[in-house]
Each structure stands twice: as C-alpha cells, then as structure tokens.
Amino acid sequence: MLRIVTYPHPALRYESRPLARIDGELRAKVRAMFELMYEARGIGLAANQVALPYRFFILNLTADPEQKDQERVFINPEIGKRYSSIEDEEGCLSLPGLYAKVRRARKIKVRAFDLEGNPVEVDAEDLLSRAIQHETDHLSGRLFIDYLGPPARNAVAAKLREFETKFREAQAAGEFPDDDEIKRQLDGL
Ligand code: NI
After folding, report:
1. Which of 15, 49, 113, 147 has the highest count of CB atoms within 10 angstroms of its CB?
2. Residues 61-102: pLDDT tens digits?
3. CA of 134 to the centre of ligand 1 (A)
4. How far apart are alpha carbons 87 and 160 in whole angstroms?
5. What digits encode the pLDDT tens for the residues 125-136?
6. For 10-188, which CATH superfamily applies?
7. Which residues does the annotation mark as catalytic?
8. What is the DSSP string of 46-104?
9. Rg, the chain, Cα only
10. How far apart are CA 126 and CA 61, in angstroms?
11. For the whole prediction, is pTM greater than 0.90?
12. Domain locations in the chain as residue ranges
C-alpha cells in the first residue's frame, strides 16, 4: 500500500536509482500514485514521496482526476538546457501547508521516457517547467525548502520543526521504522 510520506521521512533525501524496466508492476504503482496525488489535490508527485527509490515522477497540472489526458509520467528524466529564471510560489505534498517563493529556470529542455518506454523530449516553460524541476529535484533528494535564503528559511523554521516532531512521534509509535532501517529498506528495493 503506497502512501505519501512527509518531511523529514528519509526517502525524501534519498538519491533515487534509474528505472531499468517498465512493467505491469510499475504501471500499477503509477496508477496508485495518481490516485494519491488527486486525493491530496496536488499537481505532481515523485516516487520518493511514496518511499520508492526510483527515478520517475507523475504530473497533471490540472489536478483534475477527470482530465486523464493531461496525465504525464516522466521516467529517468534529465534536464538539459535551462533558459532565464523566474521566482514563484511553490508547495509540496510532502510539506503540506508550507509555501515559499523559489527562483527557477523559466524554460527547460527535458528528456525522459514515458510509461510505454518511448523516449520523449519536452520543451517546458512556466508552470510545467517549474513542476518538472521541482519533481526532478525530489529524485535527487532535494526539496524546495533547500533553496530558501535566511529570511525565508526563518519564516518556515517553526513549521519544519512541527513536521520533525510529528514524524519522530510517528516513529516512536511504530508507524515508521527508524531512519537507518528505512534507508536499508530503500537500498533493498
Ligand atoms: Ni514536492
């Protein structure tokens, strides 16, 4: 059973591995991830966020489960060229309720594979570009809060401590194993 994990679950800091195979098992996981994402009213979800150590993420910028034609899956994504930059507000399903401005490239070129295993090359700008950069960061264990300068970092510090306390309590209650065990499990997947 997949579930969205929240900061500071160690999967969110895990350097994910490239996917070697696209099979029915992966397609089932992708479907489950879309359902979780819609439930949480998100527009993107990376595999790390459901504690899977693989390089792929899903997007539906409409966040609308009725608009299945807007669903996209990016497997083993590589961002190539980045053009100009722009600041805008971001949030993350693994940091619920936390928003901050992040500067990112406005336009990017990205190569990936789709769920049929076909290579795709996308020229993305604005929200699509931002979402792809945010999700690709996840696959390297990077979170949008890592980009915040001292004032913005201060503004979210209390909220981060709250997440931290909640997660440690969940671990103490046996809802999650300890960090080392989680990392061992991710290594073994
Ligand atoms: Ni995120």
Report:
1. 49
2. 999 999 999 999 999 999 999 999 999 999 999 999 999 999
3. 6
4. 22
5. 999 999 999 999
6. Peptide deformylase (3.90.45.10)
7. 135
8. EGGGGT--BSEEEE-TT--TT-GGG-EEEEEEEEEEEEEEEEEEE--TTSTT--EEEEE
9. 16
10. 11
11. yes
12. 10-188
- Residue 168 CA to ligand 1 center (angstroms) comes to 20
The CA distance from 124 to 78, in Å, is 13
Contacts of 43 (CB under 8 A, 6+ apart): 37, 59, 60, 61, 62, 63, 127, 131
Nearest CA to 78 among 63, 95, 56, 98?
Answer: 56
| Omega within 30 of 0 (cis) for the link into 8 | yes
As a whole number of angstroms, the distance between CA 93 and CA 95 comes to 5
On whether the CB atoms of residues 127 and 104 are closer than 8 A, the answer is no
C-alpha 66 – ligand 1 centre gap (Å): 22
Q: How far is the CA of 79 from the centre of ligand 1 (A)?
A: 17
